[in-house]
């Protein structure tokens, strides 16, 4: 990329010098979120690094990120055209493809409305308040039973393989009207690919920035292509099945809603943006893909913190016992009445910062931020981890303390909560945020109402996050569970 001249009176953002050809790629090889946080202390909230010969803008600091993504939202709403993103959803991804114009806007709106009808909108046909509540309650119940069975047999185990299937079942129910057994090999193969996907899709994968690396054999990249291919085939097969049984009088799920939209658009003339059928149908790839790994990773951190901090777990369970009791299951309407549990979830997001960067952004036009000149099409990394661990914002940021989100009167502090960055901000902020937050609340409260989580004493547990699009702790097979009220039949 040619460096554009900087207009008079403005400067380019500061940053480390780096090596010729490689730029700062060697420094960024391991834990880029930590390296870039350290560098931001020296160079400031608006900093430029180079990956290969490509300049990358790195944003830190809550105020600066709000300024860029919200106040100057139009300027920073683009996505960079990175080679690896071409493999995601056949290059048609709503989240990763470089489009941020009218077509992206129309697709995002469509995705939001199709998703809403099958998740958080009030449901006339369901006894729950909405379909999301129905799906999550059901899956969380299955999970309790599954955990008890596995514990009985194994005495200690890895929770994550079960979590990911349950969470995938919720998004499958909404998108495809389908659920899978925990032993289903096809689904298991698919949902266990989250790590391979996240390794390449994370911010700063060298092959995206250094062209010569694309011509060298790379196992990671081959696996990434394969993961995307298998994922697309899986979705394509389900979409085909939906086409053959489609009935416009009976829209069953998000996929049907999207097929219906394809058929409708050909008769409606008021649309000023024409979306191809492919662009409409591929929306479901994004929703399904974004909907399981994120929420499953959040639950996995939540249960790890509960097990590591027994006194915190006890406070959540006391709150659940007092507010909900033992005779009924938690419901979404209980949110707001469980401030400690909500504070725990916020602290899980903050402390783990398991999405250390948003998906990379890019500038849609030349702009100025905090007095620095940023050319059009600059790739931008947004460091959420830095904000969540910023000593200017948080007292003792490395401590896990849900109380930091509570007022002295024990209420949840909105202002403190809004300082946590997990879903991005502005025009590109996560479109599944409400669904994600509600799912996490209902899964965690249902599990913690019935079960006590601990780690087998003496077994090594390493919760250092492994860098990726979503960061996980190292595989942990030391979880143990106990039924809190043995002998009580499941509600
Ligand atoms: C984008 C976080 C759950 C769908 C994003 C982004 C983040 C994020 C950080 C990128 C924002 C940016 O680039 O500035 C999370 C977290 C979740 C979660 C932490 C759960 C704990 C979900 C769910 C869905 C979803 C359940 C859908 C059902 C999407 C989509 C985008 C996105 C489609 C792309 C938006 C765009 O580019 O316009 N999410 N997400 N996410 N998320 Fe989520």
TrEMBL record:
One annotated GO biological process: response to antibiotic
GO cellular component, one term: endoplasmic reticulum membrane
Main location as per UniProt: endoplasmic reticulum
Keyword tags: Endoplasmic reticulum, Heme, Iron, Membrane, Metal-binding, Microsome, Monooxygenase, Oxidoreductase, Transmembrane, Transmembrane helix
Binding-site residues for heme, renumbered to this chain: 430
The protein's required cofactors: heme
Subcellular location(s) per record: Endoplasmic reticulum membrane; Microsome membrane
Classification via InterPro entries: Cyt_P450 (IPR001128), Cyt_P450_CS (IPR017972), Cyt_P450_E_grp-I (IPR002401), Cyt_P450_E_grp-I_CYP1 (IPR008066), Cyt_P450_sf (IPR036396)
Pfam family of the protein (one): p450
PANTHER family: CYTOCHROME P450 1A (PTHR24289:SF21), STEROID 17-ALPHA-HYDROXYLASE/17,20 LYASE (PTHR24289)
Function: Cytochromes P450 are a group of heme-thiolate monooxygenases. They oxidize a variety of structurally unrelated compounds, including steroids, fatty acids, and xenobiotics.
Protein name: Cytochrome P450 1A
Organism: Zosterops borbonicus
Organismal lineage: Eukaryota, Metazoa, Chordata, Craniata, Vertebrata
């Amino acid at each position: 990329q040619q460096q554009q001249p900087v207009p008079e009176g403005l400067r380019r953002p500061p940053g480390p010098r780096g090596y010729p050809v490689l730029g700062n790629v060697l420094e960024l090889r391991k834990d880029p979120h930590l390296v870039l946080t350290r560098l931001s202390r020296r160079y400031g909230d608006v900093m430029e690094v180079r990956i290969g010969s490509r300049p990358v803008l790195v944003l830190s600091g809550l105020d600066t990120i709000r300024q860029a993504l919200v106040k100057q939202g139009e300027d920073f709403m683009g996505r960079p055209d990175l080679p690896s993103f071409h493999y995601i959803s056949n290059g048609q991804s709503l989240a990763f493809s470089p489009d941020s114009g009218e077509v992206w806007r129309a697709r995002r709106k469509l995705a939001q409305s199709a998703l809403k009808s099958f998740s958080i909108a009030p449901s006339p046909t369901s006894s729950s308040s909405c379909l999301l509540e129905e799906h999550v309650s059901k899956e969380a119940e299955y999970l309790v039973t599954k955990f008890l069975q596995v514990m009985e047999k194994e005495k200690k185990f890895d929770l994550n393989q079960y979590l990911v299937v349950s969470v995938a079942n919720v998004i499958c129910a909404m998108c495809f009207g389908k659920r899978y057994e925990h032993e289903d090999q096809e689904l298991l193969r698919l949902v266990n690919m989250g790590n391979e996907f996240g390794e390449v899709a994370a911010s700063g994968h060298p092959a995206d920035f250094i062209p010569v690396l694309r011509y060298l054999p790379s196992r990671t990249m081959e696996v990434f292509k394969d993961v995307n291919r298998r994922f697309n085939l899986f979705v394509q097969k389900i979409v085909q099945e939906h086409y053959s049984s489609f009935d416009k009088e009976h829209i069953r799920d998000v996929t049907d809603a999207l097929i219906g939209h394809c058929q409708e658009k050909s008769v409606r003339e008021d649309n000023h943006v024409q979306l191809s059928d492919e662009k409409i149908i591929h929306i479901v790839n994004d929703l399904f893909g974004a909907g399981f790994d994120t929420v499953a990773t959040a639950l996995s951190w939540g249960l790890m913190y509960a097990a590591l901090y027994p006194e915190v777990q006890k406070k959540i369970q006391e709150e659940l016992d007092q507010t909900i009791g033992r005779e009924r299951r938690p419901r979404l309407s209980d949110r707001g009445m469980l401030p400690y549990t909500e504070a725990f979830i916020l602290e899980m997001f903050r402390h783990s910062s398991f999405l250390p960067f948003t998906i990379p952004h890019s500038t849609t036009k030349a702009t100025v931020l905090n007095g620095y000149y940023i050319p059009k099409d600059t790739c931008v990394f947004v460091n959420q981890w830095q904000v969540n661990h910023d000593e200017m914002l948080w007292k003792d940021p490395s401590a896990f303390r849900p109380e930091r989100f509570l007022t002295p009167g024990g209420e949840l502090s909105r202002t403190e909560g809004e300082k946590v960055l997990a879903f991005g901000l502005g025009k590109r902020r996560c479109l599944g945020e409400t669904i994600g937050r509600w799912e996490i609340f209902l899964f965690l409260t249902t599990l913690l109402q019935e079960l006590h989580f601990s780690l087998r004493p003496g077994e090594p547990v390493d919760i250092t996050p492994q860098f990726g699009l979503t960061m996980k702790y190292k595989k942990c097979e030391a979880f143990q569970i106990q039924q809190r009220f043995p002998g009580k039949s499941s509600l």
